[in-house]
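Q: Given only this backbone (145 positions), what sequence would you predict?
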């Protein structure tokens, strides 16, 4: 499949995240200050016809500034009509590539527990306790890049 990625198109990322996280999954607090941080890399994905299909974001970990190579990945979302074609894995790989190019050596993410197997397939490992993010169980995961 052919994909095209863009960086910095927060308007399109907002469309995907609103539809997936707020409308489909019921999250109320989807957007935060990280979205406006100039270090945050917003990645959007488009199919061969130019249709928006998904998004993700990654950024240097603001809670671990003493570890400059530690980055956080998140907000991976693929529109329902575009799922199950490897697009989520492609978005993750592109986000990891961009983070590595910016100096990341380790990626952390706060995964919904129901999708941890997806991340484990590409080398992430779980750590820490299960936590609620709004109404959904999440757990931290990490990977050396």
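A: Predicted residues:
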């Amino acid at each position: 499949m052919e994909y095209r990625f863009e960086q910095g198109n927060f308007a399109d990322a907002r469309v995907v995240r609103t539809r997936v996280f707020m409308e489909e999954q019921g999250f109320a607090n989807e957007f935060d200050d990280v979205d406006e941080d100039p270090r945050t890399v917003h990645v959007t994905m488009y199919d061969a016809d130019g249709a928006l299909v998904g998004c993700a974001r990654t950024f240097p970990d603001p809670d671990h500034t003493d570890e400059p190579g530690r980055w956080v990945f998140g907000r991976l979302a693929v529109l329902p009509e575009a799922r199950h074609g490897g697009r989520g894995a492609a978005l993750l790989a592109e986000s990891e590539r961009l983070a590595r190019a910016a100096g990341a050596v380790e990626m952390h993410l706060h995964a919904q527990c129901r999708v941890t197997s997806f991340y484990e397939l590409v080398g992430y490992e779980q750590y820490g306790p299960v936590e609620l993010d709004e109404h959904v169980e999440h757990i931290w995961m990490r990977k050396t890049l």
